[in-house]
Amino acid sequence: MMEISGAAGGLSISFLSSAFVADFRPGAFLNVMKSSLFPVLLMTTVFAVGSLIPLPAQEASVYRRFSTRDGKAFYAVVVEKTTTSVTLKLQDGKKVTRTLRELADPDQNFIRKWTKFKDDLLNNAEFAKLTVKELLELRGYQSFEFDIEGNHIYVEGQVNGKEMRFMVDTGADTSLIHAGSAEAVALEMGPFDQKIRGVGGIAMAAVTVVPSIKLGDAVIEKRRMLATDLFRNGEWKKTHDVIFGADFLRELDAVISYREGRMFLKPDNINKPAQPKSEAGGAKEEFRRWTLADGKSFTAALADKKEAERQALFRFQDGRIAPLEYARLSDTDRHLVEQWSKLRDDLAKQPGFRSLTVKELLELRNYQSFDYRLSGNQILVDGTIKDMKTRFLIDTGAHGCVVHLEFARKAGLEVGPLTEKIYGIGGEAPAARAKVPVMKLGEAVIGNREVLSADLFKDAGTLEGQGEFDAIFGADFLRELDTVISYKENRMFLRPEISDKPGDPSGAK
What we know:
Layout: E1 3-5, E2 12-14, E3 19-20, E4 64-67, E5 73-81, E6 85-90, E7 95-99, H1 105-113, H2 116-122, H3 125-128, H4 132-137, E8 142-145, E9 147-149, E10 152-159, E11 162-168, E12 176-178, H5 179-184, E13 194-198, E14 201-215, E15 218-228, E16 242-244, H6 246-251, E17 255-257, E18 262-265, E19 287-291, E20 297-306, E21 311-315, E22 321-325, H7 331-339, H8 342-348, H9 358-363, E23 368-371, E24 373-375, E25 378-385, E26 388-394, E27 402-404, H10 405-410, E28 414-415, E29 420-424, E30 427-441, E31 444-454, E32 471-473, H11 475-480, E33 484-486, E34 491-494
Parallel strand pairs: 11-16, 12-15, 26-32, 27-31
Antiparallel strand pairs: 1-2, 3-29, 4-5, 5-6, 6-7, 8-18, 9-10, 10-11, 10-14, 12-16, 13-14, 14-15, 17-18, 17-33, 19-20, 20-21, 21-22, 23-34, 24-25, 25-26, 25-30, 27-32, 28-30, 29-30, 30-31, 33-34
């Protein structure tokens, strides 16, 4: 853990930061404890529940995993329900009726919330093709395509109007700025009298006030941060300017999707736009000016399109509908029509679409969700290593999995000599390679892997948060399992079917 103690101000913060060399090189993993200097604003957007649009349903194509109270699992879709029972269609086509109390509690809750109109939408063939990106952007999220280098997530942003590179780190309880980058944009820094204690030792940091941090349309203004040397005076290669930590990720209802290589933020959580007009009157087509290839223009709403014929159907203000070939439109408008989807357009106009949660959408795409808990801003999820219960810290800033040394020995892992080194803020610390025969989070199985093991709480003393987790679940496994992290719903999602086969810890797929 790292400790920050102010010389005069009584500031007390602790966090851990590490960067592994060679094949083990996670970014900064920070655990900043409670302090009035770093207020966290958590803004929750409440979506209205309304009527979903009628959409043509197809034969249910996505079977959900259900579990009975005695642990037996099966896949089925809901056909109908009463207040006490449910009729399910199994994968072999047979229909069975069960009482709700026969099913596990999560499945009972799912059935109680199930509605036919929602099910028709979720099993609609076109809707099933929508990506997480499309679904979230329809809800007002802005997406960022991130780069992954050494398993770390990087996005481009601005500090004080200057372009900078941000490393997205769920393990960082608070955000940090590199001292050299702070100087480059003329940030005023206080004295370097804050002590940062990490696995590698102690480094000094200073308090600074950042006038503006910008990622896309999200602008965070006048925030206090710590500035420190993230790269040991040039000893390590400079890869980023800012650690975008869990404080801002929570504030912006962030969603991180490894499968799509994107991060999603809700900019209006900070800068509130003008309130939209009431949608009580129902969905209305949007009339706009369209431009033809010859420069002429007309006003109409795009009502539908015939992809095979390359024709767009426009509705004019007098009610007439007329087709127009894509080729007759200007390049800009032709591209807009090509990208347009009637389903997405209808959904964007329907408040009822907002009643669908990310959890519902992803679980119907074979994800398993975990209702995580937060320690400060950090994500903790329960699982097992071998047969021992394990609490994992979910850390996108960590290159790979790291098991606390004492826990590794208690779990009976094969731990090698402390001949490896972990480099991070404050210097270096010894680490050992450890063999993990099997690791589980829910139904996701990771078998026969080699990880690093180190004293994650060295010199932490009695700092708050010491020992709250046993291992860091790093970006290597997060990428492997197509993880999605949703701060708004306090959930993490994994794809168990792409993990190692249950009961087969060999690692074979």
